[in-house]
Amino acid sequence: MFLPNDLTLIAQPDVRNVSQQVVFKIKNLPTTCLTWFVFLFLICSLGTHAYGQHPFLGKEFVSTYKRLQAPWLQEINTSAEEACRVVSSAYNVTIWIDMDVPRDRAVVISKEIATLADMLTELSKKLDSKLVILDDLVVIAPFEKADRIASQYWRNKTSSPGNLWSKPVAAPMQWSAGADSKTIASQLSKAIKSEGEWMELVESDIWPARQFTQESLLTAATCILSSLQLELDLSAKPITIKRLADGVSSSNRVEWTYTADQLKRLGDEHCKSWKREHPEVVIETQNRTWLISATPAEHLKLVAPLIPKATYAKPNSGSSVYQGELRGTLGSVLEAVSKTMKLQFTPWPLPDAVAKREIKITYQRATMDDILAEIGKAGRVQIERSGTQCTIKILD
User: Fold this and answer.
1) Is the N-terminal amide bond of 349 cis, ω within 30° of 0?
2) Which residues contact 269 (CB under 8 A, 6 or more apart)?
3) Which residues contact 348 (CB under 8 A, 6 or more apart)?
4) What sign results for the dihedral spanned by CA atoms 294, 295, 298, 300?
5) Closest-CA residue to 217 (of 259, 169, 156)
6) How far apart are CA 351 and CA 330, in angstroms?
7) Residue 254 region, left (φ>0) first, then alpha (ψ -120 to 50), else beta?
8) Among the four residues 51, 90, 268, 321, which has the most C-beta atoms within 10 Å?
């Protein structure tokens, strides 16, 4: 289906958040000074996150990951930015397009693609980019810095200040189209209570409109800074913001200690298969645990079986519910609806004066007939549907 830049229409699947936690129990805790020392030494040697929550098993990441497993239902033929706007509205998935990505490039996406994740992966490839999930947000970033963004986000999230920074932004960060990057950087500086010396590294540029309301402070900072060719390091003392280019050549491997319980739930066959597919990863075994050094993408492939599965049913046209916005001329809106819902309108084409009537409607969980009724009100026409046949009566 061709979607003009001012039209959106897509089915809305239902998604529920699911979280998973790992519980570490200690039995027969040693009491002598020597055994206490050995115990504390072992815990420290495993790292501060040894038995914490895995970055890819938190409720925000799981919720986003499950949304991406929804079936892809539409054909897209529009700009990359518009395609992301359609997806964001319909699937409730927040998408950030890095400023180095050609967002105005025309893209064609087939409706034969299986899932939303596959669709966004295909879209990213067409933009010479890669998909990165930052908990409650999806980033489309250039190949050359996508892995760096993912690994630095992991390190920041698992650092000591990471828990505090993973909370939602205290106040919305937003700007209108045409805002200068220096103004946006200044807004971020206030939000993170930064000294602001890094502001000297920011080059002036014009950005499209954007807002961060539900996302975490760490997510918002990562998106803004990476588009400014900068990165945040929460592990540094004091916390620093430096040029992204200074660290791009660094290793993108990150570490995590997998418990015996996690490895058991993953299964021997899956773990062995994963090791064969990724021979470059480094694994150190200790007390039935695995300390794994790998890229975030490799870690995700390992723990994917632990992420609860989402079940979706592809809706038929009669029972589908829709969410989104339609705006443009009455003629262009009805043409898009005709192609999406497989409807035929009579009379067609409409008289020129009627077809050029400007309309704008928004809808939440609306049926096909609900949308037709709203279009009729906005366009001052009456639409009666019988199956796939729709009769238009011009009211004035």
Assistant:
1) yes
2) none
3) 392
4) positive
5) 169
6) 11
7) beta
8) 90
User: Confidence class of residue 2 from pLDDT cuts 50, 70 and 90?
Assistant: very low
**Sign of the C-alpha dihedral computed for residues 154, 156, 162 and 168 taken in this order:** negative
Question: Which element (helix H / strand E) includes 88?
Answer: helix 80-91
Q: Assess contact for 67 and 92: CB atoms under 8 A.
A: yes
> If we measure between CA atoms, which residue out of 178, 175, 225 comes closest to residue 205?
178
Instruction: Please give the pLDDT value at position 53.
Output: 87
Q: Distance between CA 126 and CA 83 in Å, rounded?
A: 12
What are the distances in angstroms from CA 169 to CA 173, 174, 219, 235? Answer: 8, 11, 9, 20
- On whether the pTM is more than 0.85, the answer is no
Enumerate residues 6+ apart whose C-beta is below 8 A from 294: 253, 254, 278, 281, 282, 302
Structure token pair of residue 95: 């998408």
Closest CA to 155 of 243, 259, 256, 242: 256
